[in-house]
C-alpha cells in the first residue's frame, strides 16, 4: 500500500504535540483534506475523535501512541514512517448507528465505533426493556445501564463491565449489562452483527437515562435503537507485528 501524501494530527497533550513537532521536521506533510492517509498522535480517545472527524474523507488512519493505553495505536517511532505505512495491515470498521428519541419526541442520530451505552442519570436505577429484531428479549432489567459494543470496542468499556472480548472477524456484537440488579445473574448476550437492538426506558420521567455513542451524549431519552451501519467504512492501519486482531487475542489471556 503506497501513500503519496500524508497528514498528521495530534492531541493537545504535550507528548503528542512534541511528537508532531519532531515528525514535521522529518517528513513532508499535507493537510488532512488532501492526504491519502492520516497519522494520529495521541491515545485511544483521540483516535476515536479522529475517526469521527475525518470519516467523510474515507482515507486510512494510522495511529501512534502518545497517550496512555493506546489499544488502537501503534508504537511511536520517528524513523521509517513511510515504510511502516506501506507495510501496514488494514482493519475495516463499521460503526453502530444510534437513533434516539428523547422525552420531547426529538430524534437524534450518532455513530459509535466502540459502543453505544445507556446510563442512569439519577440516584435511581434505570429500568430497561430490551428487544432484538422486533422481539422482546428482556421485559425489564433494573440496572445502572447497558451497552452494545462492536468487536473493536469490546476491550474498552465493555470489558470493564465484564462483557466478552470479541475477535474482529466474528461478526458479533456484545450486549452487556452495567451493574444489573435484576435479573442479578444475567451476564449479557452475543448478537449477530446485523441485529437491530431497541432499548425502551421504563418510567423515563422518574428514572432518567442518557444514551452515549462514543463521546456523543443525549440526555433524558425515551427509547434507543442501534444497528451496525454497513454502508459506512473506516480503515485503520496497524504494524504487522502489532495488529489489532493479535491484541484482542492476547487480551483474552491476561490475568
In short:
This protein has 255 residues and is an alpha+beta fold.
Characterization of the model:
With 255 residues, this protein is α+β, with helices and mostly antiparallel strands. It folds into 2 domains: 6-93 and 233-251, Rossmann fold; 96-228, Sandwich (Tumour Suppressor Smad4). Helix content is 16%, strand content 38%. The protein contains 5 helices and 17 strands. It has helices spanning 14-24, 44-53, 81-87, 157-160, 244-251, and strands spanning 6-10, 37-42, 61-65, 89-93, 96-102, 107-112, 115-120, 126-132, 135-143, 145-149, 172-178, 189-192, 197-201, 209-213, 216-218, 221-228, 234-238. A 6-stranded antiparallel β-sheet has the order 6-5-16-13-8-9, with no helix packed on it. Strand 1 (6-10), helix 1 and strand 2 form a beta-alpha-beta unit. The longest helix is centred in the N-terminal third of the chain and has 11 residues, at 14-24. It is elongated. It starts with 5 loop residues before the first strand and ends with a helix. 39% of the residues are buried.
What is the number of independent domains? Answer: 2
CATH fourth-tier homologous superfamily of the largest domain:
Probable inorganic polyphosphate/atp-NAD kinase, domain 2
Annotation field: number of helices: 5
**In percent terms, what proportion of residues is strand?**
35-45%
In order across it, which strands form the biggest sheet?
6-5-16-13-8-9
The largest β sheet comes out as: 6 strands, antiparallel
Q: Identify the CATH class of the largest domain.
A: Mainly Beta
Intertermini distance: 37 Å
Low-confidence stretches: none
**What structural class do the secondary elements suggest?**
alpha+beta
CATH topology of the largest domain: Tumour Suppressor Smad4
Number of extended strands: 17
- What's the overall average pLDDT, rounded? 93
SSE succession: EHEHEHEEEEEEEHEEEEEEEH
- Outline type: elongated
Give the name of the CATH architecture of the largest domain: Sandwich
Radius of gyration: 19 Å
Amino acid at each position: 500500500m503506497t501513500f503519496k501524501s500524508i497528514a498528521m494530527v495530534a492531541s493537545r497533550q504535550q507528548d503528542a504535540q512534541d511528537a508532531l513537532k519532531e515528525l514535521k521536521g522529518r517528513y513532508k506533510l499535507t493537510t488532512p483534506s488532501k492526504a491519502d492517509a492520516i497519522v494520529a498522535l495521541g491515545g485511544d480517545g483521540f483516535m476515536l475523535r479522529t475517526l469521527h472527524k475525518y470519516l467523510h474523507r474515507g482515507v486510512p488512519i494510522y495511529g501512534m501512541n502518545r497517550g496512555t493505553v493506546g489499544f488502537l495505536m501503534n508504537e511511536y517511532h520517528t524513523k521509517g514512517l513511510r515504510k511502516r505505512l506501506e507495510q501496514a495491515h488494514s482493519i475495516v470498521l463499521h460503526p453502530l448507528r444510534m437513533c434516539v428519541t428523547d422525552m420531547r419526541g426529538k430524534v437524534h442520530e450518532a455513530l459509535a465505533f466502540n459502543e453505544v451505552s445507556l446510563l442512569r442519570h439519577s440516584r435511581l436505577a434505570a429500568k430497561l426493556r430490551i428487544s432484538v429484531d422486533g422481539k422482546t428479549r428482556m421485559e425489564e432489567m433494573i440496572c445502572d445501564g447497558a451497552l452494545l459494543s462492536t468487536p473493536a470496542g469490546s476491550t474498552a468499556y465493555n470489558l470493564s463491565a465484564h462483557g466478552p472480548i470479541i475477535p474482529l472477524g466474528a461478526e458479533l456484537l456484545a450486549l452487556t449489562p452495567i451493574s444489573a440488579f435484576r435479573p442479578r445473574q444475567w451476564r449479557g448476550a452475543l448478537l449477530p452483527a446485523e441485529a437491530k437492538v431497541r432499548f425502551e426506558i421504563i418510567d423515563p420521567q422518574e428514572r432518567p437515562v442518557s444514551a452515549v455513542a462514543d463521546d456523543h451524549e443525549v440526555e433524558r431519552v425515551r427509547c434507543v435503537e442501534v444497528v451496525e451501519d454497513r454502508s459506512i467504512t473506516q480503515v485503520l492501519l496497524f504494524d504487522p507485528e502489532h495488529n489489532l486482531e493479535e491484541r484482542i487475542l492476547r487480551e483474552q489471556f491476561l490475568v
